[in-house]
Amino acid sequence: MPPRSPNRVLVTGAASGLGLSLVRAFVARGDHVLATDVQAERPDVLPAAAGYLALDVRSDEAWAAALAHVRQTWGGLDLLVNNAGVAAGGRIDVASMDEWHWIVDINLLGVVRGCRTFTPLLKEQGSGHIVNTASLAGLVHAPGMSAYNTVKAGVVALSETLSHELAPHGVAVSVVCPSFFRTNLGASFQGADAEMEDAGKKMVSGSRRSADEVAAVVVRGIDARKDVILTDRDGQIAWRAKRFVRPAYTAVMKRAARRVAQGR
């Protein structure tokens, strides 16, 4: 088998968590990687071989600068990984509208901006792959997480739409839907619903899976051009239950809702 050509890869949210693990995995196999994150200065944790560009996914101007940088440096892009995101948990009557605007702007519109910015370039070259990080929460909707579930479901819907829309142009689209894994995502939790925030942090910190383990599965899914990349067995079981055993799935979610209502 001939050696694979290195990909030109841009990753958002690359300074920590899954984004950092993906950057390390791409660099380790010889890809050319542009890591981006909101920090103005290059984070020390990034591999020396990765480039760095400050990118706030809420800024149209920052996205335009990223596109200009890619065109000037590489002349094209093989893989766009829209990974940047924040965490929020909150019951519908507790979470504020400010929390909704915050998470929608980052987790959903940040992905939309990335796709809109780079799609013309990918169409021009007639190739490329967009990978959007959603969550199992985009497929399976537990109580007490309405804002987070909603934006992640939006990322799933956007990804499926673009997988159809961009296929005639030679562009693939995948959506990543991991369950809980150990990361610092809990540090971004904010909002009025302290009980749901504490529960979310416990599920993240108590997971058996590491970001590096999840990243390895994601890279394999990207290489296989999977439309939906489920990264763990728990997620696969939950998604299949919702699709094929809907009454059992609904009963589990309603029991979870009762526990939330009782403060357990």
What are its keywords?
264 residues; alpha/beta; 7-stranded parallel β-sheet; 8 helices; 7 strands; 13% strand; globular
Describe the structure.
The structure is a single chain. Helix 4 (146-165) links the parallel strand 5 (128-133) and strand 6. Helix content is 48%, strand content 13%. It has a 7-stranded parallel β-sheet, with helices on both faces. With 264 residues, the protein is α/β, with parallel strands linked by helices.
What's this, in brief?
This protein is of the alpha/beta class and 264 residues long. It is built from 8 helices and 7 strands; from the N terminus they run βαββαβαβαβααβαα. The protein has helices spanning 17-28, 60-73, 97-125, 146-165, 194-205, 211-223, 233-244, 246-261; strands at 8-11, 32-37, 51-54, 79-82, 128-133, 171-177, 228-230.
Total number of β-strand segments? 7
Helical content band: 40-55%
Q: What fraction strand?
A: 5-15%
**Which strands sit side by side, in order, in the main sheet?**
3-2-1-4-5-6-7
Number of helices: 8
Please give the alpha-carbon distance between the first and last residues: 55 Å
- The assigned structural class equals alpha/beta
The whole-angstrom Rg is 18 Å
Rough shape? globular
What's the mean pLDDT score?
88
Summarize the biggest pleated sheet. Answer: 7 strands, parallel
Topology as a string of helices (H) and strands (E): EHEEHEHEHEHHEHH
- Segments where pLDDT lies below 50 for 5+ residues? 199-206
